[in-house]
Specification:
Strand 4 (132-138), helix 7 and strand 5 form a beta-alpha-beta unit. The protein has a single domain (2-8, 32-226), classed as von Willebrand factor, type A domain (Rossmann fold), CATH 3.40.50. By secondary structure, it is α/β, with parallel strands linked by helices. The protein has helices spanning 2-7, 12-24, 45-49, 52-67, 96-104, 112-126, 145-155, 173-179, 206-213, 217-226, and strands spanning 33-39, 72-78, 82-89, 132-138, 160-167, 192-198. The longest helix is centred in the N-terminal third of the chain and has 16 residues, at 52-67.
């Protein structure tokens, strides 16, 4: 709390609301490396322009300040491929998302698999022993459903939990199916959650958003620890 007050006082309210949700879920004191994955497909343009994606990054920082005390969240931007990998931090977040999005230029299609592989590679390279909580934002289905499904199932053997968040009008049928992939026939553990934030994601109160983000994480932690995927 003291660090947030000193470096990012505008995020104190988010930090407090995240604490309430974590307390409800029995996650107070848990440690996790937090990642943010952001869709840069063409339909996402308005969400970058109106500050919605920036707001999500700030909400994730408010959560990450509890899970990971370095105050830094790696951010993977993807479209047809990986557009860029950067960071947002308690000491550097204001206007950061728009700045990066503008620098990356063309907005392409929606390649989930490339984004997931980039997170896996970054996590392996980080040397972290903590589980990872990945907030994966998108506005529609992937360009290759088979590749995305394979990437999720393969990653189930790693200490990575994927929380998918849908922006926009899409029905997200693919993500709903992927969220329900059977265990253990398709993957060793249920390593993903999903919710649709709708066409106006910023209308969701911060406390409610944190409840949605953390809804399935405790169950995954328990299962992953039981299977030895996450250290006890």
């Amino acid at each position: 709390m003291e660090k947030v007050e000193q470096t990012a006082p505008e995020l104190v309210s988010l930090y407090k609301k995240a604490a309430v949700s974590l307390g409800k879920r029995g996650l107070s004191g848990e440690r996790a490396a937090v990642y943010l994955v952001l869709d840069r497909s063409g339909r996402m343009r308005r969400f970058y322009r109106d500050g919605t994606v920036q707001h999500l990054a700030e909400q994730v920082l408010g959560l990450a300040a509890h899970f990971d005390d370095d105050g830094v969240v790696p951010v993977v931007f993807f479209s047809t491929d990986i557009d860029g990998i950067a960071e947002v931090s308690l000491s550097g977040y204001s206007g950061r998302i728009a700045e990066l999005n503008d620098a990356y230029g063309h907005m392409g299609r929606t390649n989930y698999a490339a984004a997931m592989e980039a997170v896996v590679e970054h996590y392996r390279g980080s040397g972290s022993t903590a589980p990872a909580f990945v907030v994966f934002q998108t506005d529609g289905g992937p360009s290759s459903r088979a590749a995305a499904t394979e990437a999720l199932c393969r990653a189930a053997r790693m200490p990575l939990f994927w929380q998918f968040v849908g922006f926009g009008e899409d029905e997200f049928r693919f993500l709903r199916r992927m969220d329900e992939l059977p265990v253990p026939s398709a993957r060793v553990v249920d390593n993903a959650g999903f919710f649709a934030a709708g066409p106006e994601p910023r209308s969701i109160p911060d406390g409610e958003l944190y409840d949605l983000l953390t809804a399935e994480f405790p169950e995954w932690l328990a299962s992953a620890r039981e299977l030895g995927i996450v250290a006890r």
